[in-house]
Amino acid sequence: TVYGEPDKLPVNEIAPIDPITPYSRSKLMTEWILEDVSKSSDMNYAALRYFNVAGADPKGRTGQCSPKATHLIKVASEVATGKRNKMEIYGDDYETPDGSCVRDYIHVSDLAEAHLPVLNLLQATQESYVLNCGYGKGSSVKEIVAEYQHVTGKDLNATIGPRRAGDISALISD
Questions:
Q1: pLDDT tens profile 70-91
Q2: Full-prediction pTM beyond 0.70?
Q3: What is the DSSP string of the chain?
Q4: Catalytic amino acids?
């Protein structure tokens, strides 16, 4: 989220920064704090810029359990399993192929596995890093909804609502 609406996709770690929400500003502030501490001490850091984290542990040990989830994958899963009766797509007038937002969704297990090699890199090089974590491929909200409907055979009763403040057209990691 620290990139805002990027000039080009996929976005790399040296792309211009333009946080447009309080959430993205707080992420960037944390990176700045780490950078400042690193410059004034012998501590090095790795800031992993997660793209859209999705999914749960395949063994069912962990997953998002908040009762009022807003994440697309969680909401679609709740509609597909009958915990909700409908879902909303926030805007269909973005400059994307189908008008809905495009995101680079990364599975939480793959993201968890990325941490140990990064820790090893920090120990081996004694340098600091800012690293994007994604697959380099985007999927639109409408594509995700269609795939859920195809796989589950259930209508997700997805309606089109207004855009949400701070949502950007597309964000894909390099």
A1: 889 989 999 999 999 999 999 9
A2: yes
A3: -TT-S-SSSSB-TTSPP---SHHHHHHHHHHHHHHHHHHTSS---EEEEE-EEE---TTSS-----TT---HHHHHHHHHTTSSS-EEEE-S-SSSTTSS-EE-EEEHHHHHHHHHHHHHHHHHH---EEEEES-S--EEHHHHHHHHHHHH-----EEEEPPPTT--SEE-B-
A4: 23
